[in-house]
Amino acid sequence: MLFVHPALFYRGADEYIAGTVPFIAEGLAKSEPVAVAVPGPQLDLIRTSLGASAANVTMLDMTKAGRNPGRIIPGVLRAFADEHNGRVRVIGEPIWPDRSVVEYPACVQHEALINRAFAGRRATILCPYDTDGLSPTVLADAFRTHPTVIDSDGTRASTSFAPDAVVATYNQPLVAPHNAECRMVDASSLGELRRFVTKFAAHSGLAPDRTTDLVLTVDELAANSARHGGGIGTVYLWTEPDTLVCQISDAGYIRNPLAGRIPAPVKQLGGRGLLLVNHLADLVRMHTTPAGTTIRVYFRLPRRAAQVLGDHTR
Predict the structure, then answer these.
(1) Cα 303-110-238 angle, rounded to 5 deg
(2) pTM for the complete prediction?
(3) Which residues neighbour 294 within 8 Å (Cβ) at sequence distance 6 or greater?
(4) Is 9's pLDDT higher than 60?
(5) 306 neighbors 210 (Cβ within 8 angstroms)
(6) How open is the CA angle 233-288-174, to the nearest 5 degrees?
(7) CB 36 within 8 A of CB 53
(8) 314: which residues sit within 8 A by CB, 6+ positions away?
(9) What tens digit of pLDDT does each residue of 120-149 get?
(10) HSE of 231 in the Cβ direction (CA atoms, 13 Å)?
């Protein structure tokens, strides 16, 4: 089998180590390149358990490398796989109890889209799920996004595997709040929009370097609306307790669910706009239908913590 994508259901540190370390050791014994991208505490557990073998494994803190779920396929999984010939082996944990409820739709769509992104490629991607900390909804979705599931009883095929249905289910409408700042934009007003966004970000307390990233992100999305979304877009800006949010809606339709998630070939001209957006933003949400597309980007402000999955989705 070319692509293997199991979910690992674990309870506690012992089951976590029992499900991950032998997986890594088997890969190293077969001379397969191995990467581990999991939250920091789990990364420390694996590194300690591996001992000297950890030096042969690429280690990434998923809370940083995969802060935006839309960045994980191009920036973590494909970035690692594309460096190597032959089969690669990856542990990727994109969903953990401290993920916010706002992030979850993008997280579960990511898990579903891995199956498309790696179809026909020689790779094994193991995705751990904390059964103590995650809700029944999250665990049920894991069966829908993974063809096999591993737990304390062994390995079994999922009877509810339906990744395309998951992508559709979480293609949820995005409605800006009534108090959001609103601007219409076309190709002639991009400069005015950049100035407006810069001023709004400064007033909101966004750091200067992240303001630069926000302006570049909004400019790219607005330019896409002008080129591909019917010539005009509607831009909304607002703040939440811990986040600056920008949303752009237009008449375009993004047919390819992997848009912005697959690295562009080096010689390709253009086609990198959504990749750039995923790289810069802390979170990207999208709703797209033949009637139009809305893309929402989140940039974190230094304020109080968000609601989290472990507390609010049970």
Answers:
(1) 35
(2) 0.92
(3) 173, 174, 247, 248, 249, 286, 287, 288
(4) yes
(5) no
(6) 75
(7) no
(8) 135, 136
(9) 999 999 999 999 999 999 999 999 999 999
(10) 0
